[in-house]
Write a structure and sequence with these properties.
This protein is an alpha/beta fold and 392 residues long. It folds into 2 domains: 263 residues, Zn peptidases (Aminopeptidase, 3-Layer(aba) Sandwich); 112 residues, Alpha-Beta Plaits, CATH 3.30.70. The protein is 34% helix and 27% strand. The protein has 11 helices and 16 strands. The strands form 4 sheets. Strands 1-2-4-3-5-16-6-15 form an 8-stranded mixed sheet, with helices on both faces. A 4-stranded antiparallel sheet has the order 10-12-8-13, with helices on one face. Helix 3 packs across helix 11, helix 6 runs antiparallel to helix 8 and helix 9 crosses helix 11. The longest helix is centred in the C-terminal third of the chain and has 21 residues. The two termini are 21 Å apart. The model has no long low-confidence stretch (mean pLDDT 96). GO terms for molecular function: metal ion binding; N-acetyldiaminopimelate deacetylase activity. One of its GO terms (biological process) is diaminopimelate biosynthetic process. This is Amidohydrolase. Pfam families: M20_dimer, Peptidase_M20.
């Protein structure tokens, strides 16, 4: 590895600074659209380094603009998410969350820091042609902050031609990357099923229409949607995750509520699963003399990389760590990611950087999770090299 390929690894002081930034952000987590301190910290650093900063996009998001040393027509966006999760942290180290019920349990503190490290280096070494837009996004965790930034003019106020994202991934060893040429993350929809029967005494089941029985049959029946409706080569998930009903041992309730989620990688599968769920809900209830209503809450669309842009990411990652350390086209995740909204507007790619294997790294959204500070320079280097690779 040459100094050009790894400019930040060679700068021990910058790595130490990045660790301090990351741990400060981890200690002060802020959830969706409340990232006021985080945004202020990021904005101040970017301004200190001479970048032009535009704040307030999507509420608490910002975009920093850095022109290269050489003239060029390339305009690329690099995105990091900033928000934390509404969950309690169980870690006891010094930089554990000081805000009860809020935690950087997904590594957005690390994502923000890696992009800050890259912007710091490129501000001092703008050896590229064109313009880079550093996108610091709020509210990825359920708040659709990426969509809010798009609606607030991200791609009309700034002439971004391509957009790139990166997420740490526990289970992938530190020092490795994974790049998908197509689907990376799933589309997600939530649903509510309200079953209405006729309540009564548990000792007199012949006088009631039991919604609990209907719910039980539905819970089993929906498992056939993926197994017996999607093509075996397609991917989908239907999970019922919550059941609410009943008040006493001897009372059959009037209503039961089921809630859950649908996950898919293709719009055709997404539409089919919704249709089949509606059919099962309606006719299973009718078969038992009950009634049922189904409502959907749309979630994020699928995150789909543009193959040519993913190939650029693959090439840069291989230059950094070697071909053996980069996985091309791994299985996608059925988790969701609102970077999908940006990829709907512009070509680009979203990659995974290893946070440590299963023994080294807790899973995402785990109360004991922590971002691996050892990978901060590698992530920042990836951003720097991507800029140098694209902006020539």
């Amino acid at each position: 590895m040459t100094a050009r390929l790894n400019p930040i690894v060679a700068q021990t002081t910058l790595h130490q600074q990045m660790q301090q930034w990351r741990r400060d952000l981890h200690k002060h987590p802020e959830t969706a659209y409340e990232e006021f301190r985080t945004c202020a910290v990021v904005e101040q650093k970017l301004q200190d380094w001479g970048l032009t900063v535009h704040s307030g996009l999507g509420g608490t998001g910002l975009v920093a603009v850095l022109p290269g040393k050489y003239p060029g027509d390339k305009h690329i966006g690099l995105r990091a998410d900033m928000d934390a999760l509404p969950m309690h942290e169980s870690n006891t180290f010094a930089h554990a969350s000081c805000h009860h019920g809020k935690m950087h349990g997904c590594g957005h503190d690390g994502h923000t820091t890696m992009l800050l490290g890259a912007s710091h280096y490129l501000a001092q070494n703008p050896e590229f042609a064109g313009t880079v837009y550093f996108i610091f996004q709020p509210a990825e965790e359920g708040g659709a902050g990426a969509n809010r930034m798009v609606e607030d003019g991200l791609f009309t106020r700034f002439p971004i031609q391509e957009v790139y994202g990166m997420h740490n991934w526990p289970g992938i060893p530190a020092g490795q990357f994974a790049v998908h040429p197509g689907a990376v993350m799933a589309a997600t929809d939530s649903f509510d099923i309200e079953i209405t029967g006729k309540g009564g005494h548990a000792a007199m089941p012949d006088t009631v229409v039991d919604p609990v029985v209907v719910a039980g049959h539905l819970i089993t029946a929906v498992q056939s949607i993926v197994a017996r409706n999607l093509r075996p080569v397609d991917t989908g998930v239907v999970s019922i995750t919550r059941m609410v009903g009943g008040s006493a041992y001897n009372v059959i309730p009037e209503t039961v509520l089921l809630q859950g989620t649908i996950r898919s990688l293709a719009e055709t599968a997404r539409s089919l699963m919704k249709q089949r769920l509606q059919t099962l809900v309606t006719h299973t209830a009718e078969a038992f003399g009950a009634q049922a209503t189904l409502s959907f809450t749309p979630g994020y669309p699928a995150t789909i990389n543009t193959p040519a842009n993913a190939q650029h990411c693959y090439q840069v990652a291989m230059e950094l760590v070697g071909e053996a350390q980069v996985t091309w086209n791994p299985p996608p995740s059925m988790g969701a990611e609102d970077f999908a909204y940006m990829l709907q507007q512009r070509p680009g790619a979203y990659i995974w950087i290893g946070n440590g294997d299963a023994q080294e790294s807790r899973p995402l959204h785990n109360p004991y999770y922590d971002f691996n500070d050892a990978i901060l320079p590698l992530g920042a280097n990836y951003w720097v090299r991507l800029v140098q690779h694209l902006c020539v």
